[in-house]
Specification:
The chain has 294 residues and is of the alpha+beta class. The protein is built from 7 helices and 10 strands. The longest helix is centred in the C-terminal third of the chain and has 44 residues, at 250-293.
Amino acid sequence: MFGKIVLFLSALALAGAQIPSLGFCPEYVPMANFDMTKFLGVWYEAERYFQLTEVVSRCVMANYTLGADGRFRVSNEVTNRFTGIKRVLEGEIKKAASKAEEGKLVVKYTIPLTPETKYSVLETDYESYAVLWSCSGIGPFHTQNAWVMTRERLAPGTVLQKAYAVLDKYKISKTFFVKTNQEDCALLDAKPTQEPQVEGGGEKPEDVRSAVAPDAPQAILNSKKNGNNEERPAHPPENSSEKKPAANTVPERIMEVADAVKGEEGKEATTKGEEGRVEGNVERADEEKKKKKL
């Protein structure tokens, strides 16, 4: 008999993926004067009761909205920690039967054959934390589930302490609570963009088109900007009125070389002429000496 009870509890725990207990569900009254309008917005799952179906889950969040038709809806997002695939489950929150039951939320999901989810808001300040709880039972056995939700993805310890106080108030054991991984979840929300890579490890251009062929106006502005940013000499030259000769062009340089060659040739011809005249004078002097001797 005891073995059958254990087997039944194990099957119940696996089916509901919750914490099984002996006895009936405790009578926890939901939060009084609960205002669903203030509860709207995004809530992040900080901690939850251990669930087999959520072992590979991370970045869990819920978004409560009010449609144009006046109906409240909730969108639950869960990301697989191994594949990175995000799963979204949307549902409509049924209208409460009475004012006292407004803190009891019954969600009917849009996916066919998906069972309704019932949970109560035990307490919330609408701005930082909320404690949710659910319980389902079969005969003398029941399973409980609880969640600590926060407005911040990574809530500080002071906010979590407020939620823990609520759990202690309702005598909900924190033994089975596990923390939800919310690290680096903001990166999953942002769309990845690929920046152009430059070979050789250079800087990445902001615009490929402008890097290859910049627009003329932009190039002119950049040239003016670079001209204005050029460093000026610390000490000006002594004779500012003197101007350095400009660099000659190739044709001018060729003419200068030709003139220099002609000048050298003229000097050589002059030298040879002078040498010839000297030799002629010497020869004439010798002839005159010979004539005098005769």
